[in-house]
Records
---
Amino acid sequence: MLETKHRKVADASKSRYSGDMLSARIVQRWRGSGSTFALEADFEVSSGITILFGHSGAGKTTLLDCIAGLIVPSSGRIALGDTVFFDSDKRRSLPVQNRRVGYVFQELALFPHLTAAGNVAYGLAGLEKSEQQCRTDEILQSFRISHLHDRRSAEISGGERQRVALARALVTDPRILLLDEPLAALDAPTKSKIIDDLRAWNREHAIPILYVTHSREEVFALGEHVIVLEAGCVVAQGTPHEVMSAPRQQTVAQLAGFENIFEALVIASHEDRGTMTCCIAGSDVELETPLVRAQVGSSLRIGIRAGDILLATARPNGLSARNIIPAQVVSLEQRDVIVSACVDCGVKMEVHLTLAARDALQLQPGRDVWLIVKTHSCHLMAGTQ
Amino acid sequence: MDWQAFWLTIRLAVLVAAILFLIGLPIAYWIAYSRWRWKFLAEAVLAMPLVLPPTVLGFYVLVALGSRSPLGRWWQAMTGHTLAFTFAGLVIGSVMYSLPFAVQPFAASFALVDPKLLAASATLGASKMRTFLRVVLPLSTPGLVTGVALSFAHTMGEFGVVLMIGGNIPGVTRTVSIDIYDQVEAFNFSAANQTALVLLGISFVALCLVYGVNRKVWALWPWK
């Protein structure tokens, strides 16, 4: 209790810790029924929002739990600024309650027996009652939820519950904020409003915020920095644009929205033109792609977004696009306001077009078409190895 | 109706329920959260009174409290008389006999508290003790009421253990159930019936409380 009190008093100097960098090297193994899962991540997070991105089961939540101290990793070192959270060499592990980590769980975990104000004030034990009330009212106001003051969590609606959870985590002036898909269940406008509030808060505090998501819209909307996790390993990191627009790994590519991914073989490189010719494995379809450092005869992967492919009902003339491939429509499927066409040109490709385009071209299964793909719409990724 | 026996029984049951509440909480906490691999052994020992004939339990408690055991000798040295055949001895035996009736509902309700809430509490700077007092206990109210009500009702009606440890000393160890037994032995059926009815009523009320709380028929805690 005394320690908590001391801790809270130290809060007076708000900016004391701001700008601290989290450095984490985490190895965590455990045995499930019949399988072993290993998490091996090594990364740094500076102040501002960093997105932790990956499929479910990639180990994102486990990573947050290790940082928060809810899971003690098998080995590694986690430190925030000068404070060592965990060090397996020195056999040190700071208890959760002393780490000053703000954690918003996916399930939010609001205390059902407390009101919104009670939830927020929970982390302020050790402060005087009047100070608790003052801080609680202040943060409820800044997250625009003052009207929920006396309501229990069961009486609070979706987006507002998220705000309460966020306020509860932030009122304690954490040194780092961990957000585990806290906004996954919300509609876009509510989401962006909450994010604006969070950004506003962090302009003042400038702490590292680690934001877990598997939604690629959120990656672009939010992150200054992205870390991509796959099967427990960091496979890519950088700005969202760097990571997502030129993905090197297949997982990233799928996550970044490449509906079409093909194994391919380099059959010629044209250094003067800055392009190469690649043949899609298992077919005789040849594609002109941007030039990368790859030997003729080596294999790689090509990713093409379904929205980047054009369809034509007659062979077009005078077009800058270099790849014009004859094909046949296999099936058409309407998804909301877009039509997803499956087209066979030796291999099957997914093409997205508008309802209007489908009707204007009178597309139907069996129809012969031409596929048009720009050279730079062919994204090259590392091969199978 | 033997009012002396009645009040003695009430006193015994209230005291036992109170003691079980206090010692049951830490034991239940340990049962609910410990990851010790041999925990099941402790659980089995704790559940023994559920299946053991009361006379067996009573016999061993009697031996343990008697003047030949270290505990009995220590007590005798401290107070000048033995533990057996006293009210204190009765309390000790009853606490052991009703232990699972308190610990099991407590532990079950602790285990039902969402682990995420405990994690949230820890990240908000709360110690294990504070988490227990501020989160686990308030969310376990139905289990606590159940445990206390069951241990009270169970002590009210015990017979075998009381007879083995306490005997039948009016005003000291003579409880209602022994009174009923005596009345029946003396063919005094209407007196036995009267006492039995009171016991029946108390047990019914206690169980109504247990099931009512668990169905949330009425709110003991002001949340909806």
---
Amino acid sequence: MIWGRLLGWAALMVLLGVLPLLIGWSQLPDPVAIHWGIDGSPDNAWPKIATAFLPVGMVAIGLFTTSLFRIEGRPTAEAVAIVGLMGGVGVSMMTSLVYLNWDAATWQEAGAFVWWHLIGIVLVGALGAWLGYLLGIRWYPRPRNSQTVSGPVLEIADDETVSWIGGCSVIWPLVLLGGFALFFLFMPGWLKMVGLVFLILGFLFLRVYVVINDHGMQVQLGGGLPAKKIPLDRIRTVEAIDLEPSQWAGWGYRVVPGGSAVVLRRGDAIQVNMTNDRRFAVTVDDAATGASVLSGLVARRERLTPSE
Amino acid sequence: MLIRLDSRSSKPIYRQIADAIAASIEDGTVESGERLPSARSLGNVLDVNMHTVLRAYSQLEEWGLAEMKRGRGGVVVSAEASLKNLAQRLVGEARRQKVALVELNQVVAEAWEL
């Protein structure tokens, strides 16, 4: 079973996450402190048994997002890394929760939450992601494929100024914004940071804006954040392609071996094959026109530049 | 949206920009309700002065294809709204010249026949 190893990895993460609770069960008050205020003192509690759902929930969210990281039905190394990240955060959250509640008579007497707990959680999460990635590239090596169609080249006169403005916008990042709301309303304090990350990602990937002119190709994400700049002299060929997100292992700003891409949806996209043998793709509406303009500008530059 | 500018053409640059955007609106590349890029950013892209772009935008507004909104920049209007805009301007001009509606209808009917 292709997904077996990923699911096994997820199960291991859940087990590691619940382990601190099992070890500390008899030493913990019921209910246990689950949330700490800004001053570090506990201000909210959950029934002891309910805390077991923290690592389960974290890993479940991780598994859910792996639907974005698959190529032709197979998970990618990133999927294993995401589960490792969420699992690692779950494990360290449970560990600090058990540590702070250890031997407290009631949850109000639990130890104070200090900033290095947060650093610990981030570090263990990063460790989980790193381990997951190492396992992932072993379990699910990336297939190589790229089907492309070359398009026509726009005829451009020597002294003509030609510019093309394009892009596309999508609504799926609103799901991330929804995730932000969820984390902000229902999750304990330190998890709200995850919500903030969702919020920023949601805004960035609502639209992409592409400008093609004499300076080459410039790509901006939502809010005008520059994402990529490719000058004409670094471009070998340009193609309009029918982009399949699975070939780039998902949506968003993708970095894969041999290239990178901004993927907001499937379908029309411009792919630039660069002189350093890397490729860059971006999803835009009316990609055929954009690709022909960029091809035309590259052709004119080659025509006007004296060859050594 | 493809914009080609020819500096040797007798057509002024602002008019070339306006024509190119109008063509994009007509072929549906730019849809009604879509926001036009800010004059400053389009000026940077095209390597022309911001005021040239603003002049192109006011030309589009005159043609009834776009509306300049305070704080939102240029917005492409729907075909329906664009016709309504032009009709309002026509009626305004007729009132100024004290032309009656019957006469105005006649003028429109004559223009239709051309």
